[in-house]
Amino acid sequence: MLKIYGIKNCNSMKKAFDLLNQLGLEYEFHDYKKQGIAAETVKTWLDNEGQEVILNKKGTTWRKLSEAEQQTALSSEENLIEALTRHNSLIKRPVLETDSGYIVGFDEEAYRALK
Length: 115
Fold this sequence. Notes:
Blueprint: E1 2-6, H1 11-23, E2 27-31, H2 39-49, H3 51-54, H4 60-64, H5 67-75, H6 77-86, E3 95-98, E4 101-104, H7 108-112
Parallel strand pairs: 1-2
Antiparallel strand pairs: 1-3, 3-4
Helix pairs in contact: 5-6
C-alpha cells in the first residue's frame, strides 16, 4: 500500500491525490500538519533522498526563517531534522512512500509508472 505524506490543501498534494485516484491506486494519507511527523521518518527520508530533495528552500516557510535559523538548520543533520519536524512546511510535498522507495514532489510520470 502506498503512503503519501503532506498537507491536505497544498496544490501539489491535490494533483497527487487526483492522479492516484484516477489511476485507482490505494493509498494512506499522513497529514503532517495535523498529525506531525516523526524525527525517525524525516531521518529515513534524508538518508534515502538527501537534504537537497527533502528540504524545500523555495517555499515561504524557508524564506521566513532568519539567516541564523537557516544556518543553524543546515549546520548538522540533527538540527535539520529538528527544523523539519518543527516547521513541517519545510518538507517538499508530497512524499510518496512506495514498495521500491520514495517519490518526492509531484512527478506525474513516476506516479503513472506505479500502475
